[in-house]
Write a structure and sequence with these properties.
- The complex is a heterodimer.
- By secondary structure, chain A is an alpha+beta fold.
- Helix content of chain A is 43%, strand content 20%.
- Chain B is built from 14 helices and 15 strands.
- In chain B, strand 6, helix 8 and strand 7 form a beta-alpha-beta unit.
- Classes of the chains: A alpha+beta, B alpha/beta.
- At the A-B interface, helix 5 of A face helix 12 and helix 14 of B.
Chain lengths: 134, 409
């Protein structure tokens, strides 16, 4: 079977961590993938320069859902500077999938990262160069 | 499954890619996106560059004359293939999309006014929606869509009302998602009765069934070479000569002019008026050879074989628990393709697992977001057949789907 669906990915897909929405929130950002119509909403609560709480919702493939689940686990308690610097390569290492030669699925894996970074940059009043996520 | 009306084993041997990889050849079920190419087409394009390459309509030397002859022969082959009145009604474009944009900008730009309506349908490909939106924004015209029913057929009960104020009907002959084959001849009659024209998106129909533009009674037909065994980069706009003659240029440049001064130009007759710049010479010549290949088999035979494949495809998919297929049941208005969802898995994951089993299908919205919105699903997986597919390809699809349901259960 495809390496894409290791047990860890399937486990996060079946039982996603931090699934839902936050109320109240400091950041809420929805991103969609125009290639397949998938949407992810990511909410953050921020306190003392750190991410205090995080939740995601939306529908998508196993790769996008598992990546969001693992990413949200990572983000809890993270300094904003570290979250701002969190990169595509960090996500790929986190989920353990070699997607460098699979541009379509790469977009699935990075959807939640994009939501987090677009939302966080807006919260900080900064401009994100979305090219770094392509 | 009836015996194919042609030698399917010989046909498969004509397609080099279907032999690869040797240890487990691909079950290619994505021809609705782009077809594979037979050796005869690949060789014809290569032969052009090896033996005949020169620009067309320019040189007085032998190579250029021969290239021009081959290029114009291809135009004639296209005209014959769709029963056009004349090869002058055949314009080479990059693809279906460019052909539709040509009509929208040239005919639409000079014939539509505020209050005019362009009638589409809910099942159109983005290429038959967005060009009309751009035109509507420019002219003050508006768009209206024929709805679809739960089986994926056009709802035509209120067609007379829908046609009020309509100047152009732009409709697909065959849906690239539902496989629905629309009653284009009827729609042409109804459109003409209110003084409207009809453009048909033939991207999915022309490769798979006999096409007779005169019998259909339509005004414009757009289709792509790459979905009918030819290379990418060549498509066709066919239009009735009187309409094309009255249309202003689309793109400006070389080839499309008679005389040019710094201030003003006069334009060439059709089809040259709509073919600015050096065209896709090798690709168009290869399209002519693709048509030779299809006509040697016979489009009626292609259609009959695909009908039996479609039957088998829908029957087999109905046997897999958790699979929902969209579009009409098998019949005369249903093509050999199936867009479907699997209860437990996202279409991307379905396609990925199928890929690991050597089965190529497409997953996504297939450039039909309004249709998927009407079906209330974000995306589907799609398996589509062509003349080189076999029941074994469909068996491998079904076996792959059973693995999907086990993995994601």
């Amino acid at each position: 079977m495809s390496d894409m669906y290791r047990d860890l990915i399937l486990e996060h897909h079946r039982y996603p961590h931090n699934y839902g929405t936050l109320d109240p929130y400091d950041v809420s950002q929805e991103e969609h993938n125009p290639l397949c119509g998938d949407r992810i909403r990511l909410d953050l609560r921020i306190a003392d320069g750190k991410i205090a709480a995080v939740a995601f919702s939306g529908k998508g493939c196993a790769v996008s859902q598992a990546a969001a689940s693992m990413l949200t686990d990572e983000l809890i308690g993270m300094e904003l500077d570290a979250a701002r610097a969190y990169s595509k390569d960090d996500v790929l290492e986190l989920i353990g999938l070699p997607l460098d030669k699979n541009p379509v699925r790469l977009k699935c894996a990075l959807l939640s990262l994009k939501a987090m970074k677009v939302g966080l940059y807006r919260y900080l009043g900064q401009q994100l160069d979305t090219d770094e996520l392509d | 499954m009836h015996t194919p009306p042609f030698d399917i084993t010989a046909v498969r041997r004509d397609f080099p890619i279907l032999q690869l990889p040797i240890e487990r050849p691909v079950a290619f079920l994505d021809s609705a996106s782009s077809s594979q190419k037979p050796e005869a087409v690949i060789a014809a394009q290569a032969a052009f560059y090896r033996t005949t390459n020169a620009n067309v309509h320019r040189g007085v030397y032998q190579l250029s004359e021969q290239a021009t002859y081959e290029f114009e022969r291809a135009r004639g082959r296209v005209a014959h293939f769709i029963n056009a009145n004349s090869a002058r009604e055949v314009i080479f474009t990059r693809n279906t999309t460019e052909a539709i944009n040509l009509v929208a900008q040239s005919w639409g730009g000079s014939n539509l006014h505020p209050g005019d309506v362009i009638l589409l349908s809910q099942m159109e490909h983005h290429s038959n929606i967005v060009p009309w939106q751009l035109l509507a924004q420019r002219t003050g015209a508006s768009l209206r869509a024929i709805p679809i029913d739960s089986a994926g057929r056009l709802v035509l009960d209120d067609l007379d009302t829908l046609l009020q104020g309509v100047k152009l009907v732009a409709i697909t002959h065959q849906s690239n998602v539902l496989g629905t084959i629309n009653p284009v001849q009827y729609l042409a009659t109804k459109a003409h009765a209110v003084g409207a024209l009809i453009l048909v998106d033939g991207a999915q129909s022309v490769p798979h069934m006999p096409t007779d533009v005169q019998a259909l009674g339509i005004d414009f037909l757009a289709f792509s070479g790459h979905k009918m065994l030819a290379p990418t980069g060549v498509g066709v706009l066919w239009g009735r000569k009187a309409l094309l003659d009255a249309m202003p240029p689309f793109l400006g440049g070389g080839s499309m002019i008679k005389t040019v001064t710094i201030e003003v130009s006069t334009y060439a007759d059709v089809p040259a008026r709509f073919e600015a710049g050096t065209p896709m010479i090798g690709e168009a010549i290869a399209l002519g050879h693709a048509i030779d290949y299809l006509e040697a088999i016979g489009m009626a035979n292609v259609a009959a074989y695909e009908e039996s494949l479609g039957h088998y495809l829908l029957d087999q998919l109905a046997e897999v628990a958790g699979v929902t297929v969209y579009g009409p049941p098998i019949g005369p208005d249903r093509a050999a393709m199936a867009s479907f969802t699997v209860d437990c898995a996202h279409p991307h994951d379905v396609a990925q697992v199928l890929d690991s089993e050597g089965v190529a299908v497409r997953a996504g919205h297939h450039c039909t977001q309004p249709l998927h919105a009407a079906l209330d699903i974000p995306s589907t997986a799609r398996a589509s057949c062509y003349l080189y597919n076999t029941t074994q390809d469909i068996d491998r699809l079904v076996a792959g789907l059973r693995k999907v349901t086990i993995l994601f259960a």
